[in-house]
Design brief:
Strand order of the largest sheet: 2-3-11-8-13-6-5-4
Number of domains: 1
Number of helices: 11
Shape: globular
Structural class: alpha+beta
Distance between the termini: 53 Å
EC number: 1.14.11.61
Cofactor: L-ascorbate
CATH topology: Jelly Rolls
InterPro entries: DIOX_N, IPNS-like_FE2OG_OXY, IPNS-like_sf, Oxoglu/Fe-dep_dioxygenase_dom
Mean pLDDT: 92
Radius of gyration: 20 Å
CATH superfamily: B-lactam Antibiotic, Isopenicillin N Synthase, Chain
CATH class: Mainly Beta
Order of helices and strands: HHEEHEHHEEHHHEEEEEEHEEEHEH
CATH architecture: Sandwich
GO molecular function: 2-oxoglutarate-dependent dioxygenase activity; metal ion binding
Helix content: 25-40%
Keywords: Dioxygenase, Iron, Metal-binding, Oxidoreductase
Length: 365
């Protein structure tokens, strides 16, 4: 029986607990957005605040090995110090694999609900895999128009044993082929700070990888909803594959609040063969605020389904993150305290997405 969309509990059970997701609503022929998905005005994407698109910050990573090495590093550093976002091409991840990832994502979310619900929290055969919807729907006042499957990488064998059939091979290959790129980017960024890390410490700060497949069904009232609310990522670097539809926005500047009508957002346009890189909170903390974790969000569309596939590179759970001593010595002040990453992450997931307020947990000012 179809749920009553005016009944919040019925809707929540249908979408969240039963695993039908937003796609389940759309498949029922939904013609208007249920009230539970309508965002307050200051969280909607105001097109008047969008200032063009980020087409010029595209970095050719093949030049890291050539005579333009220093210039490429400068470009990576500059983007990380300002917007916290850039795109990379010639990154070493096969373009055929990127196309296969998009197909696999559509195929996973195109399955019957019961197939996907087998990976819901509490019933999933492994804590390495979780299917869900929105961010933390149990505490959100307004839900996000998004379903996802999340796969944590520990080793190849676990991935092949527990990740969902149909997408595990391509998702695993994506993690493995992007790993060297992520390591090189982080080595360049950390080295630019004048910091030299032992291999064990570098591994501690960069040893966690999780890949998501995100699905954004068409929305009948896209101006009232968001695909993902305004937030920064918790980890070190995020690698994102977009499809050709677009909808990713990053905020320019940090000194504005959600109700500030003067804040400016820039669209990150889909570029065939490119991957989007963004700085996370952990790298901002370690750099003592020099590198900026990017506040970003995703709009919905009424045209067609959109997919994206991010890899979240992050510290190991027990790793301690705090400003590098060399940077604090140079800056004369520590802007963040040292925290254990899993405690930072626990705080991150205890609240609805709300810009960069997650950083308050580690801030000293």
């Amino acid at each position: 029986m179809a749920p009553s969309f005016n009944d919040g509990d019925s809707l929540f059970n249908f979408v969240v607990k039963d695993g039908n997701g937003v796609k389940g609503l759309v498949d029922m022929g939904l013609t208007e957005v249920p009230g539970r998905y309508i965002q307050p005005p200051h969280h909607r994407i105001n097109k008047q605040q969008v200032a063009g698109s980020l087409e010029k910050v595209t970095i050719d990573l093949s030049e890291l090995d050539g005579p333009n090495h220093e210039q490429v590093v400068k470009s990576i550093v500059h983007a990380s110090e300002t917007l916290g976002f850039f795109q990379v091409v010639n990154h070493g991840v096969p373009l055929e694999l990127l196309e296969s990832l998009k197909v696999a994502a559509h195929e996973f979310f195109g399955q019957p609900a019961e197939k996907k619900a087998a990976y819901l929290k509490g019933v999933s055969p492994s804590p390495l895999v979780r299917y869900g919807t929105s961010f933390v729907p149990e505490i959100e006042k307004a839900l996000e128009w998004k379903d996802y499957i999340s796969m944590t990488f520990t080793n190849d064998a676990d991935a092949l044993d527990f990740w969902p059939n149909g997408c595990k091979e391509v998702a695993l290959e994506y993690v493995k082929t992007s790993s060297q790129m992520v390591q090189r980017l982080l080595q360049a960024l950390i080295g630019n700070l004048g910091v030299k890390l032992e291999d064990s410490r570098f591994q501690e700060l960069t040893g966690f990888n999780m890949v998501n497949m995100n699905f954004y069904p068409p929305c009948p009232n896209p101006d009232l909803t968001v695909g993902v609310g305004r937030h920064s990522d918790a980890g070190m670097l995020t690698v994102l594959l977009q499809d050709g539809i677009g909808g990713l926005y990053v905020k320019q500047g940090e000194n504005t609040s959600p109700d500030d009508q003067n804040e400016v957002w820039i669209e990150i346009p889909p570029t065939h063969g490119a991957l989007v890189i963004n700085v996370g909170d952990s790298l901002q903390i370690l750099s003592n605020g020099r590198y900026k974790s990017a506040e970003h969000r995703v709009r919905t569309t009424d045209i067609e389904s959109r997919v994206s596939v991010p890899i979240f590179n992050a510290p190991l759970p027990k790793a301690k993150i705090g400003p590098f001593p060399e940077v604090v010595t140079r800056d004369g002040v520590a802007r963040y305290k040292e925290v254990v990453y899993e405690e930072y992450l626990k705080n991150y997931f205890e609240k609805s997405l709300d810009g960069k307020k997650s950083l308050d947990f580690a801030s000293t000012v």
